[in-house]
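Structure tokens please, single chain.
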Amino acid sequence: MQLSREQMLQAYRRMKIIREFEERLHIDIATGAIAGFTHLYCGQEAVAVGVCEHLDTDDKIVSTHRGHGHCLAKGCDVDGMMKEIWGSREGLCKGKGGSMHIADVDVGMLGANGIVGAGAPIAVGAALAAKLDGKGKVAITFSGDGACNQGTTFEAMNMAVVTKAPCIFVFENNHYSEHTGFEYAVGTQQDIASRAEAFGMRVWRADGTDFFAVHETMRELLEYVRAGNGPAAVEFDTERFFGHFEGDPQRYRGEGELDRIRETRDCLKKFRASVVSAKVLTDADLDTIDAEVLDQIEAAVVAARAAPRPTSEDVLADVYVAY
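Here you go.
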């Protein structure tokens, strides 16, 4: 599908927002100003944006511990996200979710999840609700290569097939489950997608560092699932530029590996090269967005630093629900 100029500008802006959001956190976390564990999404932006550009607020997604990119791609507010991570009561979850548990149901973001593989069952439940609604909506669970070994993921895939739930299992294979290489930890010695195929669902595979490959793959996949054919899965081969968590020394990486993937597999560089060579956008167009995004992220950080922190009275708020 040919994207319009406006659609390409929007896609690049969203990828750039994710990149600069994460790059800024990488700097600020090192100062000790932000509490808690943080797992950055840099390098995988084309997957989150390529998937979510097809969705509206009634389509649901469930994320992982590496969830900032999914949240931002689905439409979560940048300022609200930054305030949440900085621990403000003005954050999307009033400072109680932090980096790994951000949610915003108003935009169809059902939550990040600190437990590997725990998002898949939630997504199947949301997909079954969408099936009952009969409006052609879907639920998507993002997982890494580590989650493909989890029993929760297997059970969720099986239930999705049995119930023909409109659930999409998006596997982002960034080659490392925490610190363990995919080639060692996944027994098929082939790919993740073939595991989903064994449950009886149709699968797709694509280059997760190429926004246009992700976008076109998802267009075809979503058309299939929205038509009532049941669940599907897709594996995107991608890279993460930082460690499993902030502070990870990454001694499991090969010499020069990070430099190589940043040079040859950066989805933003590949996007720029593609659209500029095709003469559909110019370097000046993208440079303008780069500058605007940097200003936006700086403003979000300034606001987050100044935003009020939770009080002692907030501790028990929103813990229990009275029906």
